[in-house]
Amino acid sequence: MSATLLDGKGLAARLREELRGEVETFTSQTGVTPHLVVVLVGEDPASQVYVRNKEKACVAAGVKSTLYRLSSETSQNELLDLIAKLNTDQDVHGILVQLPLPKQIEEQAVLDSVSPLKDVDAFHPENVGLLVQGRPRFLPCTPAGCMQLIAEVCPNTSGMHAVVLGRSEIVGKPMGLLLIQRGADATVTTCHSRTRNLQEITRQADILIAAIGKANFVTAEMVKPGAIVIDVGINRVDGKLVGDVDFTPVSQIASAITPVPGGVGPMTIANLLKNALTAARLQTFSK
Ligand SMILES: Nc1nc2c(c(=O)[nH]1)N[C@@H](CN(C=O)c1ccc(C(=O)N[C@@H](CCC(=O)O)C(=O)O)cc1)CN2
Ligand SMILES: [Mg+2]
């Protein structure tokens, strides 16, 4: 392997440690402990792991966390009622609804119902709008983690060509927005399942972000020599976690690459803590 390995696990641990200090200062100055509520609906095994990891990270950083576990039969109205209560609960600063939701629940209706001031995922249309306008209230957790990993090897992305594979609301779209924002100043191309001549485009990428949810999709032929490759994919193949990037051959060509596991995933959780603190600040200082 010739590429630098971008160690998300290590970087996330450092960020969480920094956050712990910031939370401590905030709490000693205000008497307020940031409080994140996570809502988990159903039994999705991967979601159970992520939610447990979020709780552990909160506890270690001094953020209070409460988990609401709802049955997979929960109706949309029951979930909306719970969120309405949490929205007005002054003791709750951040609300996160773990995705995916069971099929009887319309995801967008639920995400729209979270108070934008408590929306630590930055999924609410108001927060997406603020990000589009370049004045974000919360940074979306996974794309922010990708930016921090890129900064480890490339502090100046101005004028670089970033290609984002995937157009999801959680990663692909906000990723493109962070890369074009002032300060990052990359030139962004977003590709998706209907993109023609995909390889021709991905081979132009100085920075390639893979977020399409297809195991080992990005092959060495798709990567420009020296590119920075960020793998957002988390796919389970024969009980093993693999990313969207065919890691071993691509790591011979890229200048830097994230592993799966231990790359982008842990960064998502570190940024969630940061948003929980931001939410607590917003609600404490606007009173
Ligand atoms: N409300 C949200 N739902 C979901 C989000 C999100 O950001 N907000 N993202 C994903 C899941 N996710 C966080 O919720 C998440 C996924 C993976 C990891 C992570 O640390 N992965 C580890 C591997 C862990 C494992 O063994 O499975 C890694 O990559 O090293 C953290 C968070 C969808 N839902
Ligand atoms: Mg979905």
CATH superfamily of the largest domain: NAD(P)-binding Rossmann-like Domain
Question: Kindly, what is the distance between the CA atoms of the first and last residues, rounded to a whole number of angstroms?
Answer: 54 Å
The total beta strand count reads 11
Overall shape:
globular
Helical residues, percent:
40-55%
Largest sheet data: 6 strands, parallel
Order of helices and strands: EHEHEHEHHHEHEHEEEEHEH
**Which architecture of the largest domain would the CATH scheme give at its second level?**
3-Layer(aba) Sandwich
Quickly name the level 1 CATH class of the largest domain: Alpha Beta
User: Helices and strands: which structural class?
Assistant: alpha/beta
> For the largest beta sheet, what order do the strands appear in spatially?
1-11-8-7-5-6
Ligands in the model, by name, code or SMILES, are:
the ligand Nc1nc2c(c(=O)[nH]1)N[C@@H](CN(C=O)c1ccc(C(=O)N[C@@H](CCC(=O)O)C(=O)O)cc1)CN2, magnesium ion
Kindly identify the CATH topology of the largest domain.
Rossmann fold
Spans of 5+ residues with little confidence (pLDDT < 50)? none
Report the C-alpha radius of gyration, rounded: 19 Å
Q: Averaging pLDDT over every residue, what do you get?
A: 97
Protein name: Bifunctional protein FolD
Catalytic activity: (6R)-5,10-methenyltetrahydrofolate + H2O = (6R)-10-formyltetrahydrofolate + H(+); (6R)-5,10-methylene-5,6,7,8-tetrahydrofolate + NADP(+) = (6R)-5,10-methenyltetrahydrofolate + NADPH
Binding site for NADP(+): 166-168, 234
Family: Belongs to the tetrahydrofolate dehydrogenase/cyclohydrolase family.
